[in-house]
Design brief:
Radius of gyration: 44 Å
Strand order of the largest sheet: 1-3-2-6-5-4
Number of helices: 14
Largest sheet: 6 strands, mixed
Number of strands: 18
Helix content: 40-55%
């Protein structure tokens, strides 16, 4: 680059269009972004430089010329963080950085120069130069533009996929600013509450959609999460705008600043079908489908919790001669008789803690600890009387009767209590059936 010895810098003629507005805009942005006095873009020519565009303070070509010459001859960016220090003497120019920009045309070489009266640290000077290259390089700009476009397209695709997945899974995102309790919902949450999408939200109005129990549970969990800056999850029942009942799983995460909760955000998912399925599964697991009473499994579980949930007494009920009803009238009528017996038991055992069908024609009644022994024994007699009423069917009176064994719980295990009631039941049968007997300790 010996031809640059004169370091001639020619300014553009007024009639020559040497730089476009976008270039000036980039240089202006660089000046403001890097906080430097001057940014210039020059074309390297055989006998010097042609100034194409400049932003900031008008550059002193006498000061810049030698540094531009060195930058043009350098294999890489020339960065002089502190000119006075590098020269070992005072200097009017504090900082200079110059770099040749790629143009894609070997015949055209451009030099970008950054200058400022203030020196910079080495690290800062290199950062400024690197940022300038990133901002002004067309290739870099184009590459970044493509990356940004691809990123935006990917985000849009992922957002669309998320929205579709959210709607399919019936999941929505929500947030609440604790400063003013303002809410923000995605469309799926509006759909869950059956409210118009984008309609104005109010937390007070939203809370009215919760059932009383669910509102209390949710508010308690929310308050604890805010106090501890933690998270929470609750299943809540709501009543939608159209009056439908739905269940949702509500998760909340507390965002805190300096240990103070400022925002809650999370998800709301419609779990109505899941809840109904779970309830149905639990119902089938715990209920006798024939009569609608608790089944043997639920009875045994409750009886087994004797130490945790005390029991006052147990009554075992056995329908007398039920096999003859099935044999004489068929199982369809036998089933009707079972349901009628269950209905009668339910009517007279309204104080029971559990009423269950534990076998083909066997029932069990568990009484709470507040019932006295005389009250429990008297219930056995009422059961015999209630079940023993004839069952009218198609103009025919079908005789029903029951034997009842009663055992009051004073001490001992669940097995002891069941054994005592079973012993009393056999005593009732031995006494001619259609009667009640209470086990005597």
């Amino acid at each position: 680059m010996s031809s640059l010895a004169a370091t001639t810098i020619r300014r553009p003629r007024t009639t020559e269009k040497t730089a476009t507005d976008p270039v000036l805009a980039v240089l202006s942005r660089l000046c403001a972004l890097l906080d430097i006095d001057s940014v210039t873009l020059s074309r390297i020519e055989t006998d010097g430089f042609r100034l194409l565009a400049a932003s900031g303070a008008s550059p002193d070509t006498r000061l810049l010329g030698p540094w531009m010459k060195r930058a043009a001859a350098s294999d890489g960016p020339l960065i002089v963080a502190d000119i006075a220090r590098s020269q070992g003497s005072p200097a009017a120019l504090g900082f200079y950085a110059g770099m040749v920009l790629p143009t894609g045309d070997d015949k055209i070489k451009l030099l970008l120069s950054l200058s400022d009266a203030r020196p910079r640290s080495e690290a800062m000077a290199h950062r400024l130069a690197g940022l300038a290259i990133e901002v002004t390089s067309d290739a870099t700009i184009n590459r970044l533009a493509r990356q940004i476009a691809q990123h935006k397209a990917q985000l849009a695709l992922e957002q669309n996929q998320f929205e579709r997945a959210s709607q399919t899974a019936k999941i929505g995102i929500w947030s609440c600013d604790l400063a003013d309790e303002s809410l923000n919902w995605t469309d799926s949450v509006y759909d869950l509450f059956e409210l118009p999408r984008g309609s104005e939200l109010s937390r007070d109005v939203t809370l009215r959609h919760y059932t009383d129990q669910s509102r209390q549970t949710m508010e308690a969990a929310r308050a604890q999460a805010i106090a501890n800056c933690s998270d929470f999850t609750v299943d809540a029942e709501i009543i939608t705008a159209s009056g439908a009942r739905r269940w949702m799983r509500l998760t909340g995460n507390v965002e805190a600043r300096d240990g103070v909760a400022v925002r809650i955000f999370g998800m709301k998912q419609d779990i109505t079908e899941e809840k109904l399925l779970a309830d149905k599964t639990r119902y089938l697991a715990e209920t006798d489908v024939m009569t609608g009473l608790a089944n043997r499994s639920q009875f045994q579980t409750r009886l087994g919790n004797l130490a945790v949930a005390p029991i006052g007494g147990l009554l075992l009920v056995d329908l007398d001669g039920f096999k003859q009803i099935n044999d004489s009238f068929g199982h369809a009528l036998g089933d009707q008789c079972l349901r009628e017996a269950a209905r009668r038991l339910t009517a007279c055992c309204d104080q029971a803690s559990l009423l269950a069908r534990i076998g083909g024609d066997e029932f069990a009644v568990l009484m709470g600890p507040k019932q006295t022994e005389s009250e429990i024994s008297a219930l056995g007699d009422r059961i015999v009387k209630a079940v023993g009423q004839p069952y009218e069917h198609n103009g025919h009176a079908i005789a029903l009767s029951a034997s009842v064994g009663v055992a009051c719980h004073r001490r001992g295990t669940a097995d002891d209590l069941f054994h005592d009631a079973d012993t009393a039941l056999y005593a009732a049968k031995a006494a001619g059936r259609n009667t009640s007997r209470t086990h005597k300790h």
